[in-house]
Design goal:
Blueprint (H helix, E strand, L loop, with lengths): L1 H18 L13 H21 L3 H19 L5 H20 L6 H6 L1
Helix pairs in contact: 1-2, 2-3, 3-4
């Protein structure tokens, strides 16, 4: 959950830019800049909110992990490790949560256990 509080900041900043009319964004997978921007906002903001709540934990981790993998492997591929390190530092806890699942106090546990 704590890692998503940090990611929420990045997603919110992107959401503000998008709502402010900015549509230019990286298009690493060839989906188009606007769709790439929207998918990144959904992952970094919406999925982070769901992860904080502990709702659909493993499902929301998939777009978050994909976003961080794309940032690490494609967006920052030519950058120094200091730039690549940031998405990697998010990816590791996301992968760990994916493997361990939702915690005792998650909504998933209360609703689906």
């Amino acid at each position: 959950m704590g890692i998503s509080l940090l990611m929420l900041n990045y997603g919110y900043a992107k959401l503000e830019r998008f709502l402010g009319g900015e549509r230019g964004f990286a298009d690493p997978l060839g989906f188009g800049e606007e769709l790439s921007f929207i998918l990144t906002i959904l992952a970094e903001f919406v999925c982070s909110l769901l992860l904080i709540a502990g709702l659909f934990t493993r499902a929301v981790l998939v777009p978050l992990m994909i976003t961080m993998l794309v940032a690490f492997l494609i967006i920052h591929s030519d950058d120094a490790f200091e730039k690549k390190e940031h998405p990697l530092l998010f990816l590791i806890p996301y992968l760990t949560l994916f493997l361990t699942g939702p915690g005792r106090y998650s909504l998933d546990q209360r609703l689906f256990a």
